Amino acid sequence: MPSKSVDELQGLVGETRRTVSEFVVERGKVAEFARAIHDPADVYLDERAAVAAGYETIPAPPTFVRTAYFPRYRPDDTDQGLGFHEDLGFHQPRTVHGEQRYEYDRPLLLGDELTGRTTLEDVFERDGRRGGTLTFAVLRTDFTDTAGEHVVSDWNTRIETGRAIEGERE
């Protein structure tokens, strides 16, 4: 169980924090990411292929925005839990990543510089089988460009098990 009750956690729902700053979509990082995910599409490496495919310039792969959470893009006061790690009070050894989804208004393109603001969208519990009560925290990060235009929303669900799963160590 988290160190706070679900009622206490639900009191944080709707709270928003700046969690990503100066996230620049760079050519080398896009190419490196495309190779890391084994995506051979030329649009991530070749400007001409990207333009021929209808992009203004080289786009980033859809899940590239996940790299915005790397420490180099976090404001100094932001923790690894998208700004809510301490407030959630989840016990780290029993916390897992449950779900990730993205909704784009437009593709990420080379040269984009984004800022992210994360909102605690929901907190709830469910009965688990082997790990006891499961506590879910749904976090949504909205990314905007330097013009203030919304580019993408990213939902990240964290799950804490109520106890160590039988046969596993904490």
UniProtKB/TrEMBL annotation:
Domain FAS1-like dehydratase: start-end pairs: 19-152
CDD domains assigned to the protein according to its UniProt record, in alphabetical order: R_hydratase_like
Coiled-coil regions listed in the entry: none
Official protein name in the record: MaoC family dehydratase N-terminal domain-containing protein
SUPFAM superfamilies per UniProt: Thioesterase/thiol ester dehydrase-isomerase (SSF54637)
Annotated InterPro entries: FAS1-like_DH_region, HadA-like, HotDog_dom_sf
